[in-house]
Design goal:
The protein has helices at residues 5-19, 95-107, 111-124, 131-144, 148-161, 166-181, 185-196, 203-219, 223-239, 247-266, 273-298, 303-325, 338-370, 375-395; strands at residues 81-84, 90-93. The chain is mainly α. The protein has a domain at 1-25 and 245-410.
Length: 410
Amino acid sequence: MRPALVASLLALTAAAAACGPGPRPRAPAPPAPSDVTTGLAPADDLAGATPPTGAGAGPTGTRAGTGQGSGTPHYDLEEIRLTATAGGDVVATAPSQLLDDAKAALDAGRTREAIALYRQLAADFPTSRLAPAALFNIGVIHENLGDVRAAIVAYHDVVAAFPVGRESLDAHLRAAGLEAEHEHWRDAERTLRDVLARPDLSHTDRIEAHARLGYVLLEQGRHAEARAALDAAVSAWRKATRVDDRYYIAMAHYYLGELAHREFLAVQLRSADTMLKADLVAKERLAAEAYDRWRQALEMKQPYWALAAGYRMSHVFLELWETAVRAPMPDGLDPAARDYYRIEVHDRVRRHLHTALDGHEMNVKLAAAYGVDNAWSAASKVRAAAIAAILARESRGELVVPPASARQAP
């Protein structure tokens, strides 16, 4: 195994303390920390965050209007529609005014009126630069109301009406995120493949789309395809001249670690001597591969994924210890030598417990340095206490072997 866990965490703790908490781009809602024995998996990372916002966007996540309310309003030269009323008056309507009226209605809690105004803007002024934002805002409203199905439809409507452009791309990715969050894996996969076929992707957008797709494929159990998608995210990252937001490249590295870890868990130990040795070697190799991938995620210095990776890097040592102390006895072992064998195994692998403990303690410190306290840091606190208790029992001469039914999930 790699001995650099504590050194890596120490270095990042120092770096995080020096830089301060920093921005938290699209951080997903972390898993509930109340029962860490159920395992931790950032399964909501695709859509658990506040909807994407543009510069000056309001608290609801809708796209900003014309700047009214922050000094003198500024309106670009735009199309104006003149309509004659029954009384003979002429009413002038501009897309910017409709956008501002919709925002005012939304701020007042009149969501149906706001949606109607956004739809009117897009229908009456389809060539306006504000039309895509208007349709995007309809999706945000439905999402804020908890109507996920309507939100997904609305986001897809943006893409259908405007195949290219920032709002279109954000809507495309947002739809995929909601589909994945609600475990509509096939829909999310289809949407993400459509995203990757778009002509208007930057390297940063491509990193995000591939990382999301890798996660969706992983959840479907299609490991080879998931690996290809996640590797494509890494490739896109290497081609980019600059990536300020490392959220999705950290996510790609993390899930590459998860792929190796799932293979690690799938290896079952057989009892015959030659097979047992081969199985232990395979588990060690896969644990090392997972560790290295998680370390790469941690080194991206994105708080959420750094803490997730730090937790996993530490926990895999506990799993290695469990693997060794629960492994079957070698075939043909003399009964008189069994007790000596158990003691020897525990003495040899106790270092894994110390490494796991050090790693979890450093992960808690890393969270403090980043100024965050989420489920991963909370789980590391719980794990550290549990491992310290095991070490205390072993120091008293006990040979702790957790029963299979009580084995902690990763």
